[in-house]
Amino acid sequence: MSLNVLVTGATGFIGSALCAYLTKDPALTVYGTFRNARTRPMSGGCNYVQCDLAEDTSTLPRGIDIVVHAAACLDFSDADISRLEHDNVIASRNLASYCLSTGVRRCIHLSTTSVYGDCMVAELNEASPTNPVTDYGWTKLAAEEAIKAAAPELQSISLRLPAVVGPGATRIFPALLFERLGHECALFYNPDNYYNHIIHINDLVVFIRKLLESSWYGAPAFPIAASQPITMRELVTLAARLIGSNSVLCFEEDRNRPGFILSVLHAAQVYGFSSLSVIETLEKYAKSRNSRLQDDFI
To answer: Which one of 21, 136, 195, 285 is the catalytic residue?
Structure first.
């Protein structure tokens, strides 16, 4: 099946990796948006379009079959609420309007587990309530709602992502974990809590490719993550071994930092999602963390 695919945020970390992967498929014609001329496109097979989604969508191509909405202002960007609203909410509303006006019928939206907020349950899944506690989380939830409001004409999926790791990934927990292990003493909390708030970029782009030819109805939203959670103690010990850290590992209990895992059962059973284990994901990331190349796709 031949498809015309539009990837927003095509020069960001996830967007550029996705375009590099999708353009290898001769059945796909891939278009990608970038906002300003300072951003350099990375994939030679992608048709790039300069566009600020929050300002003007008139330059976006017609005849698109499906949109992958990866453009966003992230929570570690030091942006204020007005910038978050501009880039996350207004841009998503405009994108939904573009889809409706040009006949795009499907959209895959890359959201975040930050929409759940502070969790007091052991496991989060597709039915867990949302209650964001950060401006970033609120604006990403509003982005989900903006796209959902275009149903039933626009069928959408919101993938609630944890930390996405791969070559060039920075300022996320696994990267900060490695940095902390460079100190003489490294303090971590709740060593017996289980953790799988991570996904490798390869697993994400392969799943998105699968969704391009899948069918769904409405606007489902659900988390995806690495499989086979491990405890924080196991995670930290593994990370220290992978980078040869000599840090003294210290652990403390903190009831104000509740632990939870992300269920991938729904994504696996309904949509065919599969992923590396937490251990495999961290090992793969550790090998590539000093590289900016994204050429090791499955």
So the answer is: 136
